[in-house]
Amino acid sequence: MYRRNILKLKLFALALFFLLPVLALSGCATTAGPTTSASGLSSGNVALSTKMSASIFLQPVSPADKIVYVSARNTSTATGLNFRNELISALISEGYRVTNNPQEANFMVMSNILYIGVESSNYTVAGALAGGFGGAFIGSRYNSGTSMVAGGALGALAGGIIGSMFQNKNYMMVVDIQLEQRQAGTYTTSSTNASQGTASNITTYNSGVKNWAIYRDRIVSQASAINLNFASAEPLLKQQMAHSIGNLLP
Known about the structure:
This protein is an alpha+beta fold and 250 residues long. It has one domain (46-184, 211-246): Lipoprotein like domain (Double Stranded RNA Binding Domain), CATH 3.30.160. 29% of the residues lie in helices and 33% in strands. It is built from 5 helices and 9 strands. The chain has helices at 2-25, 83-93, 125-131, 152-165, 230-246, and strands at residues 42-43, 46-52, 67-74, 97-99, 107-118, 168-188, 191-196, 200-205, 209-226. Strands 1-2-9-6-5-3-4 form a 7-stranded mixed β-sheet, sandwiched between helices. It has a two-stranded antiparallel sheet with strand order 7-8. Strand 3, helix 2 and strand 4 form a beta-alpha-beta unit. It starts with a helix and ends with a helix.
């Protein structure tokens, strides 16, 4: 009987050893808030990052010529997004005046949201960037790190509880952009290459655009935090994306 009681006490102490950290940490399992830091690289406990498929450099202009026309589209499955407001705010903060008349503008910023949501094995930052402007998302499995807790059945149980309480969530926003700058003497042409069957292609040459330099790119913003939800990630992604696009203009 004595030995049995000692064994029970040891098992009870071992259970407390693994479960106390869980109970202590349970009060910290909060969802990240939507507050943005001045650096733009983090927001509270949310890590933010933005990557581009290529760099764009536009010619500097005088403050009086900083007039921009803005178009923001959304072809993703997410509804109710209003990215244009964030984009306009970012451009105004960079000293630009927004106009609804393309004839008056010296710059045009056109964007299309392709995807906003959870980063998964089917939708990844690397895959989106590899596809490039206008391209599909190339499958590039996202592998997150995992940790193991040793110590028998009780250790595995405690590790499972901790893992279910604290999960790192990644969300991303994928946007194709076209930037245009009024430049006298430039002439831009474009073409579309369509496959026909298995052995032939048809190339369609579109009419040229005079006096406008045109640049295209794909930008992907990512938000990552423990137990982050989409309601908190969405405004952060839009703000970070708008900040990045606004800083591409001179």
